[in-house]
Amino acid sequence: MRRTTTPGLFPAGFAPARALDPIRAVDEAVRSVLAEMFGGFRSSTSPAPRIVRPSAAVEPVFADRLFGLRQAETLADGATIRVAVGTVVTPLARDLLKKKNVEIRLIGSAEVAASARGEWAFAIEDGPGWLVALRRSMLDGAGPWRELAPSVDDAVAWLGSGEGRGVLLVTTDGATAVWRACQSSGVRAAFANEPADVQRATGTLGANLIVVDPAGKSIAWIKQLATAFRRAGAPKDPFAGGIGGTP
User: Fold this and answer.
1) Which helix (H) or strand (E) holds 109?
2) Which own/partner pairs from 41-45 qualify as long-range (CB within 8 Å, at least 24 positions apart)?
3) C-alpha dist (Å) from residue 246 to 72, 73, 138, 238
């Protein structure tokens, strides 16, 4: 005897390959329809959806007038760099990028503006109990602050993995931290006690690492320094492609 399918029981294009009991058939039909509508359910016989995860790598952004050999030398082999429309890539830089298999991706003004906000991280070394409260306040406060391990090496490594990044390092040995950090290419470190110090360091040096000694300071005061740091925008080397740079 030939089995017939009840009209309207299954969604368009759905036909059971074998005889199913009525309850299971309805369950499969409902799951199939919901999967198409919301993507949140799938049939037990359907293949699992492929999950595409965002890449952990950060693509540097360059929006200045000239991209020269100095900037090309900082990129890793096989990297991708986002360059604003209108930026001139010099012949020497282009040759080096080709040798290093670096991909150049042109971006518009909207993407440049988004990257100008920068990426921000902080690191607080062990100390008095109130530093624990400072850490919680930084993580819970406004703005996307990322926490790094409390070491100069970790701060330097994170800064070197992407453009437009800034780190606030709270340590009792600020002088040593600034000296060590400045030994690394691309790191522009400065010591700060007041918001005005931060403004000078970011305005003239393009500082991307601000070092703060917590002695004699409150949580609110250190957070003021952090706010001044972020207000300056994504840290940028003021000498890149200019004086001291190689076109």
Assistant:
1) helix 109-115
2) none
3) 10, 10, 39, 14
Helix/strand/coil for 139: helix
DSSP state of 39: S
Among candidate residues 163, 129, 168, 138, the one with its CA nearest the CA of residue 152:
168
pLDDT given for residue 104 in this prediction: 87
In terms of Cα–Cα distance, which of 130, 121, 127, 129 is closest to 152?
121
Q: What angle do CA 58, 126, 162 make, to 5 degrees?
A: 10
The segment with the largest mean pLDDT, out of 9-13, 126-130, 169-173, 198-202, is 169-173
What was the pLDDT predicted at 80? 85
- Domain 118-231: which CATH number of 3.40.50.150, 3.40.50.620, 3.40.30.10, 3.40.1400.10: 3.40.1400.10
Of residues 210 and 107, which shows the higher confidence score? 210
